């Protein structure tokens, strides 16, 4: 049931590709909670996705922008303020892509040109967004910026390859810019480290289904679904979390602090008995 947590607030939601996207669900929830939003994605992603359908549901304008292009981001932030009639209260950065993962490159054989693209798309775009917003003085006081991350920023995961480094850079940018914008205008900047989620990007990683099940068995609450992640993002956009900033917030059902679960012990025991 809506609580009008974002009544009167305006913001930008990036990265909504289709109904499976976390950003899609954040946009719907923001609209439901009383916010007015601008949607954005890269022109190529827009052609591949269904963002026009979401725009109709949220009564939201779309401003295409390549998040690696400062010029595009300048047009996005100035255009969003014009469309929404003022400065911004929240921004969601839900942008990530690795050419190395798409091309099936193992970690030891990364294409370094592609690696740089991974970093630019998945992490440096966050810095560019915040730098453009700062230069345009685009945020209201107590605005909130959230970027979606993953626990591979801190731990080694097979087949996540150069995205691990990208997420680590993303989280570092959140801390550094959180300090800067907090001092300047009390703007909050956080990352949310979400459970493995069956989005278009997530399922493109080799072995995703096996890891999804492993994480689900390891987490006391099970994997956090995309809808719950959207709820969490809304809480971070709201005034209820005004003093939360520069944090990487784990939204993973307890996975990140679980050593081993009963389900994993039982699964390993069953396999061991079968091999005896």
UniProtKB/TrEMBL annotation:
Positions annotated to bind NAD(+): 15, 21-22, 95, 167
Keywords: Fatty acid biosynthesis, Fatty acid metabolism, Lipid biosynthesis, Lipid metabolism, NAD, Oxidoreductase
Pfam families: adh_short_C2 (PF13561)
Enzyme Commission number(s) from the entry: 1.3.1.9
Substrates-to-products reaction catalysed: a 2,3-saturated acyl-[ACP] + NAD(+) = a (2E)-enoyl-[ACP] + NADH + H(+)
Gene Ontology terms: biological process: fatty acid biosynthetic process
Taxonomy, superkingdom: Bacteria
Pathway assigned in UniProt: Lipid metabolism; fatty acid biosynthesis
The protein's name in its UniProt record: Enoyl-[acyl-carrier-protein] reductase [NADH]
């Amino acid at each position: 049931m809506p609580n009008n947590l974002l009544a009167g607030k305006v913001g930008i939601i990036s990265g909504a590709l289709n109904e499976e996207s976390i950003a899609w669900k954040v946009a719907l929830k923001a609209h439901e909670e009383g916010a007015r939003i601008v949607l954005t994605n890269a022109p190529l992603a827009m052609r591949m996705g269904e963002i026009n359908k979401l725009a109709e549901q949220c009564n939201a304008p779309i401003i295409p922008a390549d998040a690696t292009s400062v010029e595009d981001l300048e047009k996005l932030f100035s255009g969003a303020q014009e469309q929404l009639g003022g400065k911004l209260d929240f921004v969601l950065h839900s942008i990530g892509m690795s050419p190395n993962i798409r091309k099936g490159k193992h970690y030891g054989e990364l294409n370094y040109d592609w690696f740089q693209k991974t970093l630019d798309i998945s992490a440096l775009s966050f810095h560019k967004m915040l730098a453009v917003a700062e230069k345009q003085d685009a945020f209201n006081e107590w605005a909130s910026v959230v970027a979606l991350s993953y626990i591979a920023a801190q731990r080694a995961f097979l087949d996540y390859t150069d995205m691990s480094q990208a997420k680590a850079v993303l989280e570092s940018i959140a801390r550094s810019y959180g300090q800067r914008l907090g001092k300047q205008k009390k703007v909050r900047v956080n990352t949310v480290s979400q459970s493995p989620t069956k989005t278009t990007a997530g399922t493109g990683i080799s072995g995703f289904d096996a890891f999804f099940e492993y994480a689900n068995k390891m987490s006391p609450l099970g994997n956090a679904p995309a809808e719950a992640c959207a709820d969490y993002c809304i809480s971070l956009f709201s005034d209820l979390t005004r003093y939360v900033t520069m944090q990487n917030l784990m939204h993973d059902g307890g996975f990140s602090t679980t050593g081993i679960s009963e389900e994993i012990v039982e699964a390993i025991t069953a396999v061991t008995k079968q091999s005896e």
